[in-house]
Design goal:
globular, alpha+beta, six-stranded antiparallel β-sheet, Rossmann fold
Length: 415
């Protein structure tokens, strides 16, 4: 499955080189002229994570497990619904019981008393997720806090197949092998911990006052690698903090579609998942009320084997993503690739590729707006390096301060 995705993505990129050479670029959309993707009281996404792969060692699923996923909201609301994914499962998986609740505090499996809600699917309390598919729950009344934690709990009573998950949550969730504890308010039964999200891929809310969702589409830097676990210090989280104070018409839900080690052009047979070209429709266009996508991908194509030293296929991939977004009425913002000098794979040749890609992002006219992440976090004395103030230590990934600087570089009026 991963290999075929990579082949499809590579073929797409190759076919687009001719279009790039002829200069046929999509015309950037005027954000002010786009139809609203939702009304002020309509559904928007408040949290999201991209299914990244099938978890190793889960060939028969998680029979008898209750998994309490801790997820952090961007906007609040008066009702909620949950999307569950079996995207990488080879057989259907039965969800015997699914609930949502407001977390009682940080780092706990306890729910706020009275907040646990049973979720239904077409009126039924159980649902079978088809192999390779996703299912959304019915709406349930719940006072969802903005910038707060929710508990999404799944109980899987039967053996199934490989478990779809998002490996790098930068958040501690909880589970128990002791049967159905989905309706528990106290978290005492949840005696084991995980730093991954399982099955859950989105939470949407009604009554937020927000207008549409912003999807941050990227790799490990968007996923929040090296950010403080449990603190919601990924750059999309800091962006959501900025938007929280925006007036109603400018408020947006923020969904994180980052996948660690993800590439634009090639898929991988592990938790780095499908290529960006392959997963874009599922992870961006199929989300709730997509209004704007921020494309921040490409550095792994340059620094991972096989290394892409020619900027042309990367730029061609950007064009393809922009075409697909605009066809769906979604605005496209481009983020410049951040520095990586000093990391294990940096070379002058790869630096030249990054510079050429960034030059196109800034001046190529493809994007509705440009977010200069590179300028926000680079060292002023050596622009090929991360500013030491923003470097987590590996010379590739920002720290919390760097992620905040990235979020501060986003022009809110273009979202």
């Amino acid at each position: 499955m991963m290999a075929s995705g990579g082949i499809r993505a590579a073929a797409l990129a190759g076919c687009l080189v001719l279009a790039l050479a002829t200069g046929c670029a999509p015309t950037p959309a005027n954000p002010d002229s786009r139809p609203s993707t939702t009304t002020a009281d309509g559904w928007v996404g408040t949290w999201g994570a991209s299914p990244a792969g099938a978890k190793a060692g889960t060939e028969t699923g998680y029979a008898g497990y209750s998994i309490r996923n801790v997820v952090h909201t961007s906007v609040g609301g008066t009702s909620a619904r949950v999307r569950l994914s079996n995207a990488f499962g080879g057989v259907p998986v039965l969800m015997g019981h699914v609930t949502i609740a407001v977390a009682a505090g940080a780092g706990t499996a306890d729910a706020v008393p009275g907040s646990v809600r049973e979720l239904t699917f077409g009126g039924r309390s159980s649902v079978s997720l088809p192999a390779g598919g996703e299912v959304s729950s019915d709406a349930v009344a719940l006072a969802v806090p903005p910038d707060g934690d929710l508990l999404v709990t799944t109980y899987t009573p039967e053996p199934s197949g490989p478990v779809t998950y998002h490996p790098m949550a930068a958040e501690t969730s909880f589970y128990t092998r002791g049967g159905d504890h989905a309706m528990d308010t106290a978290g005492d039964a949840y005696d084991e911990r995980t730093d991954s999200w399982h099955y859950v891929s989105e939470v949407a809310v009604l009554g937020s006052g927000a207008t549409g969702s912003v999807i941050a589409f990227g790799d490990s830097i968007t996923d929040g690698y090296a950010s403080t676990p449990g603190a919601a210090h990924r750059w999309p989280d800091f962006l959501a903090d900025r938007l929280k104070e925006a007036p109603g018409g400018s408020r947006r839900g923020v969904l994180n579609a980052g996948v660690g080690a993800n590439r634009l052009l090639l898929g991988q047979a592990d938790s780095a998942g499908r290529s960006a070209l392959t997963r874009f429709d599922d992870d961006v266009l199929a989300r709730t009320a997509p209004r704007t996508v921020i494309v921040f991908e490409g550095i792994n194509d340059i620094l991972q084997n096989p290394r892409q030293t020619d900027p042309v296929p990367i730029i061609a991939a950007y064009r393809r993503l922009a075409e697909r977004a605009r066809a769906a009425g979604v605005a496209v913002l481009g983020g410049t690739l951040t520095p990586f000098k000093g990391s294990a794979t940096h070379t002058e040749q790869l630096e030249a590729t990054r510079a050429a890609v960034n030059d196109f992002i800034r001046t190529g006219g493809l994007f509705d707006a440009v977010i200069d992440f590179d300028a926000a976090v680079r060292d002023k004395t050596d622009p090929a390096k991360l500013d030491p103030e923003f470097d987590c230590g590996d010379h590739l990934h920002p720290n919390d301060a760097g992620y905040r600087a990235m979020a501060n570089a986003v022009p809110l009026d273009r979202l």
